[in-house]
Design brief:
GO terms for molecular function: 3-oxoacyl-[acyl-carrier-protein] synthase activity. By secondary structure, the protein is of the alpha/beta class. The chain is built from 39 helices and 32 strands.
Length: 1131
């Protein structure tokens, strides 16, 4: 059977969408994963009141482990989009509502919004959903009112007081309505999606406890294998995160006492509960490629198992998990030794983590791969908690995105691995920071995901990156900040543009990245006044724009300014650009990890370097980006390994070429280039003297030769920061056998020589009050100590194809440009090993040749500082694109911001080529009706102490912020608000305001609004009762009866008039009314309808309208700034 499975067509993931704590969509969740964001928070008051609950044993208030969890933020839900009458929303579990949102988004992602060729009859929905829903528990609890009454009556409570208590209890629960039954069923999560999105394939949910999501993916894959479906929406949904769920996990001592989920950590003490949804559009790979779908990654194998007769029904079992893992790899047709990332179930419980790690070790060590710590191990639960039925979907999202973006994502909250696991002696390591992911030689990147559930059910999915000839999915933006550019012909115009831009900003997740793309595309380097900003978020951007505008308008505005928060301005004329490349000593562990997160091409040089160095073990990237070090001694050991020339030089070369690739993509024109020591190799490459591949080959060979020289002669180097005339004079007077290897700046030289001579020089310099610093290098470069490497390097260079430089390249030895003769370039590059570096003179000569903007292209910012020391007050700009110990993306954007402010021409299109262009959030039309919902059920009453009237989460108004209900400060403004809701002109065949008598059209629209909760102005006579408005047969009968009661002249009408397929216009026509757009609206609907509106309060919950529009008295009682405490709709 397994051989048959391995021959099946792989399954392509062609669409992804999700909602998780702190994340309003896929891009935000991926950004949070990469940033290592901790998304665990205190239980929101809107979900449940912690002070109402007591501990499981002592009866004391609950401890921290049930005070925190992962909770969804509010998400905009538009009931009209899914033909759900607003009156019924509170009767539908949030899992169903948010499931519709995520499903529609994943379909849009899979199709790019083009549904023309979509065969909906062959689309299925299979989701992992727990059998219970939060609404089921709530509605069931509401039925226990007789039990409360019996207990109170038995206790002798007088009937009047009993009734008061009973009323208070009843007010805490939602009333039953016809939509409550389907609204609380778990299977309707999938059913409602199939219904509303018009899918004709299978729809079902599967409950495998915490393994439900991967169980759903398994069933979905079989749907595709069998040919029953051409696309399946699969994943997991879990918004069941109430006090009952916390109680369940608390009673089995699974929750963390410290309030944090720390998978595989020495400090792990349990899990934290979370909630969320993730869905994937799955297709057979061949079909996806044929139809031009954009592919994220490819599922190759799924394995499942049961634990059999284990210790208990919920105890984890390593042997059971091993079976699932082995079956997955047998199905995939490859072994675990080719997998570079495992997203574990990783709940953070001691027992669970131990059992899982044991199973992983068993499977992953039973291969021919003998080295240690080659596979990353993580768990997204460290960031969002255990999302139960959606847990596997969260893990699959993380693994698929990691493959797609070629990034190893981090796992947080591991200060030290659990020592009992002996992680350091296993194939696994726990990445604390994100890092680029290089593929094994000759193989694609591969990742696997585990998910295990109560009842002994185990699932393991293995997938790989897509490497075929088809389209790849758009990348998700992972930048922690963005670069915003504004240019103008005058300071006044620039200030005005900055102010206008600030005023145009709207709160939206896409706003900052859209603005970055827009302003970068509009960037005009020829404008005299240039402003560049690096912003973390919209509030910061607003502050920066406001400050910059004020400074530009102020008298005496300088010709240029910059600020540490990240904004740069200049009206200085631009100048020629010179590139500078650093040498050995600039390297550091972890360099180059950030740039590939925002520009995929930056990873290419690292791939080239791997090929240039062959199948070395360990590979270069494993030295530069090693397993996380959990002690200072281990950090020091890693740094010392990287400092070896055989590693440092190809590493510096790879990182420098990575940044050079970006410079080329930006089409930055540079007039000259130079390097410091080894950096001269990359400078020649930048001038086209040899290829990138050749540069990396030279770096590798040069590093090996210098390492050999270091073994033959023990040398050292020491930097002295002091006026160079004094240092040189002292060294010369002592007659020591040391060379002045580097003339770095007017205030720094570097000494080189044998170790004993360097030690003697350092002692004498300290006696003179100086402070020499020993450099972390392997030997005495640029001295006769390494003469033995010159000949072999020259011989190696003879086999490299050289070309004349396209721009001048300044040589360290002469501080002058290389001659165009390729023979002399070869000789000079070889001799450079043992010759002194005259960097200070080189920079002076480059400035003299016209260079005004010096860009350091490589690790750290040593040369940037040296340039400033060399040039002093001479007009220049020194820019670093990388800084040790800083956020690499921020440093990169700040470097580009400096270049933009300096007027350097750049084409930013390449930076955005892999990202889907989104609509301008400022131009998006707000929905006519939208509600803001989170994981808690919408409209759930939360009675205050001493009040019998329920309150609820306020409805969302499209022009009100999430936490700012619409303010109406007077009765007049309230009435005006009512009229705007009830009586404005309608679109299409709608009804316009008139003073004529009520007619059929007006009556029908008024009753439909009354019974459904749709605002009248949203109703169009062309709308279908069922498909557009979601009006079922029961509701249609109610509507017909109400119309007849309101308009007796209509007479008895057969209910078939309101058939399922009927439109509002057809109903009006059949009832004898006229359907033109000029038909009058009813001036009065019922006798108590003071503003032509109160009837609606009987169908829609009173709090819904009160909290949306306010009572109009400005007194706080309605929750919108009024204090009267009166229900303005009902009296």
């Amino acid at each position: 059977m397994l051989s048959i499975m391995s021959s099946r067509s792989p399954i392509a993931i062609v669409g992804i969408s999700c909602l998780f704590p702190g994340s309003d969509g896929s891009a935000a969740f991926w950004r949070n994963i990469i940033a290592g964001s901790d998304l665990i928070s205190d239980v929101p008051p809107s979900r449940w009141r912690i002070d109402h609950y007591r501990g499981p044993v002592s009866g004391a208030p609950v401890d921290g482990h049930v005070r925190r969890g992962g909770f969804l933020s509010k998400t905009q839900f538009c009931p009209v989009d899914f033909a759900i009458p607003p009156n019924t929303v509170s009767a539908i579990d949030t899992a169903q509502l948010l499931g519709l949102v995520v499903a529609s988004q994943v379909l849009d992602d899979a199709t790019g919004g083009d549904y023309a060729s979509l065969d909906r009859d062959r689309i299925s929905v299979v989701l992992g959903v727990a059998s219970g829903t939060e609404l089921l528990v709530h509605m069931g609890a509401g039925l226990e009112l007789p039990v409360w009454e019996h207990a109170l009556r038995s206790a002798g409570l007088p009937e009047p007081e009993l009734k008061e208590f009973s009323d208070r209890i009843a007010a805490s629960y939602l009333p039953w309505q016809e939509d409550s039954f389907p609204g609380l069923l778990a299977n309707v999560v999938a059913g409602r999606i199939a219904n509303r999105l018009d899918f004709g394939g299978t729809n079902c949910v599967v409950d495998a406890a915490c393994a439900s999501s991967l169980a759903a993916v398994d069933i979905a894959s079989n749907e595709l294998y069998s040919g029953n479906s051409d696309m399946v929406i699969a994943g997991g949904v879990d918004t069941f995160n109430d006090a009952l769920m916390f109680k369940c996990f608390s009673e089995v001592t699974a929750l963390s006492q410290s309030g944090d989920c720390r998978p595989f950590s020495a400090d792990a003490d349990g899990t934290m509960l979370g909630e969320g949804l993730a869905m994937f559009a799955l297709r057979r790979l061949a079909d996806a490629e044929r139809d031009g779908d954009r592919i994220y990654s490819v599922i190759r194998g799924i394995g499942s198992s049961s634990d059999g007769r284990a210790r208990s029904i919920y105890a984890p079992s390593s042997p059971g998990q091993v079976k699932a893992l082995r079956r997955a790899y047998a199905a995939a047709g490859y072994g675990p030794e080719t997998v570079g990332l495992v997203e574990a179930h990783g709940t953070g419980t001691k027992a669970g983590d131990t059992a899982e790690f044991s199973a992983l070790r068993d499977v992953f060590t039973g291969t021919d791969r003998a080295e240690l710590q080659w596979c990353a191990l993580g768990s997204v639960k460290s960031q969002i908690g255990h999302t139960k039925a959606a847990a596997g979907a969260a893990g699959l999202f993380k693994a698929a995105m990691a493959l797609h973006h070629k990034v190893v994502p981090p796992t947080i909250k591991v200060d030290r691995p659990n020592p009992s696991l002996r992680v350091e002696d296993s194939p696994f390591y726990l990445p604390a920071q994100p890092k680029p992911w290089l593929a094994p030689v000759g193989l694609p990147r591969r990742a696997s995901v585990s998910s295990f559930g109560f009842g002994g059910t185990n699932f393991h999915v293995t997938l790989e990156e897509y490497t075929g000839s088809g389209k790849r999915a758009w990348r998700h933006r992972a930048s922690s900040c963005e670069l915003i550019l504004v240019t103008a012909e005058s300071a006044e115009r620039l200030a005005a543009d900055a102010t206008e831009l600030c005023a145009s900003l709207v709160e939206h997740p896409d706003m900052l990245s859209h603005l970055a793309r827009e302003t970068q595309e509009r960037y005009d380097a020829t404008q005299q006044h240039r402003l560049a900003l690096v912003a973390d978020n919209l509030p910061d951007l607003k502050v920066m724009l406001t400050q910059a505008a004020a400074r530009l308008r102020a008298a005496g505005c300088p010709r240029s300014f910059d600020s540490s928060p990240g904004y740069f301005y200049s009206r200085e004329p631009s100048g020629p650009v010179a590139l500078l490349f650093p040498g050995q000593g600039s390297q550091y562990v972890g360099m180059g990890t950030d740039v590939p997160l925002v520009y995929a091409g930056a990873l290419d040089p690292w791939e080239l370097s791997r090929r240039a160095m062959g199948n070395t073990a360990p590979a270069l990237h494993e030295i530069v980006w090693p397993a996380t070090a959990y002690s200072e001694s281990e950090q020091e050991r890693q740094s010392q390994i990287l400092a070896g020339t055989q590693w440092a030089q190809p590493a510096i070369g790879s990182h420098s070429l990575s940044l050079l690739t970006l410079i080329r993509a930006l089409n930055i024109k540079y007039a000259m280039a130079g390097g410091h020591s080894f950096g001269e190799v990359i400078a020649l490459c930048a001038a086209g003297v040899f290829s990138d591949e050749a540069a990396l080959a030279i770096a590798h060979q040069r590093g090996l030769l210098m390492a050999n020289a270091a073994e033959a002669a023990q040398g050292a180097m020491s930097a002295v920061s002091a006026p160079i005339e004094r240092t040189i004079s002292l060294i010369s007077s002592w007659g020591l056998q040391v060379a002045i290897a580097n003339h770095n700046s007017p205030n720094q030289i570097v000494l080189a020589g044998r170790i004993d001579a360097i030690v003697e020089a350092e002692n004498r310099l300290r006696a003179e009050g100086l402070a020499p610093q020993r450099l972390n290098v392997a030997t005495a470069f640029h001295s006769d100590v390494v003469d033995s490497a010159v000949g072999p390097l020259e011989k190696f260079l003879a086999g490299i194809e050289f070309s004349p430089p396209s721009v001048p390249v300044y040589a360290n030895a002469a501080a002058q440009p290389y001659k165009p003769d390729t023979g002399s370039i070869r000789q000079g590059l070889a001799n450079q090993l043992a010759q002194p570096v005259h960097f200070s003179q080189q920079v002076d000569h480059m400035w003299g040749a016209g260079a005004r903007i010096f860009v350091e292209v490589g690790p750290d910012a040593v040369l940037t500082r040296l340039v400033r020391e060399c040039l002093g007050d001479k007009r220049h700009t020194a820019v670093a694109l990388d800084r040790r110990g800083s956020n690499g993306i921020r440093t990169l954007w700040q470097g580009l911001a400096q270049l933009a402010a300096a007027g350097v021409s750049m084409d930013f299109a390449a930076l955005w080529a892999d990202y889907r262009e989104v609509d301008d959030p400022r131009h998006r039309k707000p929905p006519a009706l939208a509600l803001m919902i989170d994981g808690g059920n919408y409209g759930l009453p939360q009675p205050d102490v001493g009040s019998t009237a329920p309150t609820a989460t306020p409805a969302y108004h499209p022009h009100a912020a999430d936490d700012e209900p619409l303010q109406l400060q007077s009765e007049e403004s309230a009435q005006s608000g009512l009229q705007s809701v009830v009586e404005p002109p309608l679109c299409g065949g709608g009804v316009a305001r008139s003073d004529v008598d009520v007619d059929v059209a007006g009556a029908v629209l008024g009753v439909v609004a009354d019974k459904t909760g749709y605002p009248v102005e949203m109703l169009d006579l062309s709308m279908s009762l069922e498909s557009d408005l979601g009006i079922d047969s029961i509701k249609r009968v109610e509507i017909l009866a109400a119309v007849q009661q309101r308009m007796p002249s209509v007479g008895e009408v057969d209910a078939a008039v309101l058939g399922a397929g009927a439109t509002l216009r057809e109903v009006v026509d059949r009832l004898g009314g006229r359907a033109s757009s000029s038909v009058a609206a009813p001036a009065t609907v019922e006798s108590d309808m003071a503003a032509g509106f109160a009837v609606r309060s009987r169908a829609a919950p009173v709090w819904w309208w009160r909290r949306t529009l306010g009572c109009g008295r400005g007194c706080g009682g309605c929750g919108v700034g009024c204090r009267c405490g009166q229900d303005w709709l009902s009296g």
